[in-house]
Write a structure and sequence with these properties.
heterodimer; A: two-stranded antiparallel sheet; B: Ubiquitin-like (UB roll); 3 domains
């Protein structure tokens, strides 16, 4: 035999799984929510999404090629996810130049300064979002009403989000029952019939995406379930202690970006813990921080900050929480 | 719900192409090359020299120490030379090369097909016979079988577990032996039970072999104390610790042997070899192997004589396919890549797998995206991503603390990694170094 053969250590086969497959899997999971956002917010949603995605791709390419001087890896799909997530966190009438700045901060500061995919500590889309929220608080919190293609990109009628209505109302001393009556019903909120940023309005579509990712084994249940359960329990306790001052679990789960955060942002591979136990601790932390910020903090919305804060704890969690070893000696 | 082991695991494509191919007998080679190190432990000591006439079943190299195994001639003929010849490991190692003349067996070997069920030997005689017959674990690890049967003082065996899961994709030799030699296996299990002084034996079979489960369950009813335990198909269930976890739900402590939890594990092929050794006086010089691959003309199962060149079994199955890029001795997950088809088949050869470029070529290593999939599939509950980094950075103390020595090298991490990182390669390097450090401490 003259043919040369490969000699390498085992295993000799691979599952065929790849970074791309997982990343595009997440993108498919985001499609229902994305399509629904077009349905609710019309052209504005489309403009915001396209701008965010295109600028994320562009900045990733430019930074890799000309600053880091490495082979650009824009095909791995991670810039697409960051772009869509960034758009999901924006109101549908956000000016294009602000979106571009957001993308630059997300990709440039959030991802590339740390060395690119796999090395970033914080979720890039959230870095971009929080930067914009602090820098452009007015534009970032003028939410167009969900009027479908009636919603104009340029001069949309805007309204407050349910969380903001409650926060402001409680500050003025209104009773919670009165305020709740101004809000859409829970069913409407679950289907997305309320004000908010692109991706946070339709709980049903986000849950559909979660089911897809679980079935495809892209993520496990640990993070989304622990975040949502913690918020439910914590807000439930507060609500029971004083129903006039604190809204209940359904309200907290269906409003703001809680489902979006729990399903698509807290589960980001790079910035979440490696072991199942670690994921649960991380999820509980996000849940508690979210409710604390929403109820006791200055901002009406707390999911983004909660996730970013817990991102910072991930290395610590990874070092201190080990998976259950097989045959571990019991103490 | 079917039982399986407690932590991690994967389910690669099964590709059991040769499952329906009955065992055939491979022609005796013209020249047999029999290495003296076919087992874990000390190599045997050669007792024949150039020009000696040998018969089938004759001892040609003696076990040197307790953890070692006798080597028997698999053919009859003249010893051409005792020399260093390349074996499956790729190294040149001492082998006895025999020119085959006829097929003359030692007279005391019973070559009839008749089933002998009555066990006349005592416990001690059985262990001695198993040792004399050079029987090693036939699942691939090739650990001398008599050593496992000698329960250390202070420990008691409670249950014998027979490994018939054949969790490696592609391989079907155990499957076929179960379908064709079930009664012999049962007697072999009874012999092992007698040697260990246990009243209970469990045969673990994965449910991707429903015909073997049905057949073995039915045959087992004739024997007392033997039960068949169907298991959910999950790799690496054939790992000793995983199989114990799956069948009796006990965890062998880190660094300990199965006897710690009262279990002894033997391969189903080993049980058959024990039957032949004890009831038929036949030492281990032939066994069944699968030759398989997607491009191979005729994936099939063959009973071969130890020392037959790999090229013979490939020829028998239709010849080496054009697109062969890798020749693996064993299964795709834990087998070893061979450097040539001229190396001999040995006691540990459970299969021969021919893989094409697209199936086996490694893809470029990408940055770890910290998805945690390697952690979730590791059957030992380790953190492969971390062990790889620590091995790369030569952080041996932390490697030891993070239990690198518990790694069973099943390859589930490398198989799963979406960034196609060579996790196990690095972990092996780390294990080697940490093992050295631990030994030097003693």
């Amino acid at each position: 035999m003259n043919t040369k053969v490969l000699v390498a250590p085992s295993p000799h086969i691979h599952s065929g799984d790849s970074i791309q497959k997982n990343m595009y899997g997440v993108v498919y999971a985001m499609l229902p929510a994305l399509l629904l956002s077009f349905f609710y917010f019309g052209m504005g949603a489309l403009i915001v999404t396209l701008t965010a995605v295109a600028s994320c791709y562009l900045f990733e390419f430019l930074i890799q090629k000309y600053l880091l001087k490495v082979e650009p890896s824009i095909n791995d799909g991670s810039a697409l996810i960051t772009g869509i997530l960034l758009a999901f966190n924006m109101p549908a009438n956000l000016p294009i130049w602000i979106i571009i700045i957001g993308a630059l901060v997300a990709i440039g500061v959030g991802k590339m300064t740390f060395g690119g995919l796999g090395n970033n500590v914080f979720n890039p889309a959230l870095v971009g979002r929080v930067f914009l929220l602090i820098s452009f608080p007015v534009q970032m919190t003028s939410w167009p009403k969900a009027l479908g293609f009636e919603t104009s990109y340029f001069d949309a009628a805007t309204g407050a989000t349910p969380l903001a209505i409650i926060k402001e109302g409680l500050k003025k001393g209104d009773s919670l029952t009165d305020l709740m009556s101004q809000l859409p019903s829970s069913t409407d909120m679950f289907l997305g019939n309320m004000g908010g940023s692109l991706g946070e309005v339709a709980g049903a579509a986000l849950v559909l995406g979660l089911i897809y990712m679980l079935v495809k084994k892209i993520i496990t249940w640990h993070i989304p379930v622990s975040v949502i359960a913690t918020v439910a329990i914590f807000s439930g306790i507060l609500n029971l202690s004083n129903p006039e001052a604190y809204a209940g679990p359904a309200f907290h789960i269906l409003t703001g970006g809680l489902l979006l955060g729990a399903i698509f942002m807290a589960t980001d591979y790079v910035t979440s813990p490696m072991s199942n136990k670690g994921m649960i601790i991380y999820g509980i932390g996000i849940g508690i921080l979210t409710v604390v910020i929403r109820v006791f903090g200055a901002y009406p919305e707390g999911v983004s900050f909660a996730i970013l804060i817990m991102n910072a704890f991930v290395p610590l969690i990874n070092v201190s929480v080990k998976p259950k070893r097989f045959g571990e000696k019991r103490k | 719900m079917l039982k399986t082991f407690s932590i991690g695991g994967i389910h690669p494509q099964e590709n059991k192409l040769s499952a329906n191919s009955a065992i055939q007998e491979l022609p005796i080679p013209q020249i047999a090359t029999i290495p003296i190190a076919q087992h874990i432990g000390a190599p045997a000591k050669v007792i024949v020299k150039k020009g000696d006439e040998v018969k089938v079943g004759q001892v040609i190299a003696q076990a040197s120490g307790f953890v070692s195994a006798n080597i028997h001639s698999s053919v009859s003929g003249t010893v051409l030379k005792v020399d260093d010849v390349m074996d499956a490991t790729g190294f040149r190692r001492t082998s006895v090369v025999i020119k085959v003349e006829g097929d003359e067996w030692l007279e005391h070997i019973d070559r009839s097909e008749e089933l002998v069920t009555e066990i006349t030997l005592t416990k001690e005689e059985i262990i001695k016979r198993v040792g004399d017959a050079g029987i090693v674990g036939l699942g691939g690890a090739t650990f001398p079988a008599h050593v496992k049967l000698s329960v250390p003082p202070g420990k008691t065996a409670e249950v014998l577990i027979i490994n018939a899961v054949e969790c490696e994709p592609y391989l079907t030799s155990d499957h076929r032996v179960m379908l064709e030699k079930a009664d012999e296996i049962m007697v072999g299990v009874e012999i092992l039970m007698k040697a260990l002084d246990v009243k209970r034996a469990i045969i673990g079979i994965e449910n991707n072999k429903p015909d073997a489960i049905a057949h073995m369950t039915q045959i087992a009813t004739k024997y007392s104390g033997i039960e068949v335990c169907p298991l959910k198909t999950q790799y690496p269930q054939g790992g000793e610790k995983q199989l114990i976890s799956a069948t009796i739900n006990r965890e062998v402590p880190s660094g300990a042997l199965p006897i710690e939890v009262g279990a002894v594990v033997q391969n189903v092929g080993t049980a058959f070899a024990v039957y032949e050794a004890v009831q038929k006086n036949k030492p281990l010089f032939e066994r069944v192997a699968t030759v398989t691959g997607k491009s191979l003309k005729n994936p099939s199962n063959w009973k071969f004589r130890v020392g037959t060149p790999v090229s013979d079994i490939i020829e028998a199955a239709g010849g080496l396919p054009e697109d062969t890029a890798k020749i693996v001795g064993g299964g795709p997950m834990m087998g070893k890549a061979l450097v040539s088809v001229d190396v001999p088949l040995t006691k540990g050869s459970s299969g021969l797998l021919l893989l094409a470029q697209e199936e086996t070529a490694r893809k470029a290593t990408k940055a770890c995206i910290r998805c945690g999939k390697c952690v979730s599939v590791c059957p030992m509950g380790l953190e492969p991503y971390l062990l790889m980094v620590l091995a790369d950075k030569k952080e041996y103390e932390r490697l030891e603390k993070d239990a690198v020595m518990d790694c069973i090298e099943c390859g589930s991490c490398s198989f799963t990694c979406p960034a196609t990182r060579p996790l196990l390669d690095y972990i092996r390097l780390g294990k080697g170094k940490v093992g050295q450090i631990m030994r030097s401490r003693k």
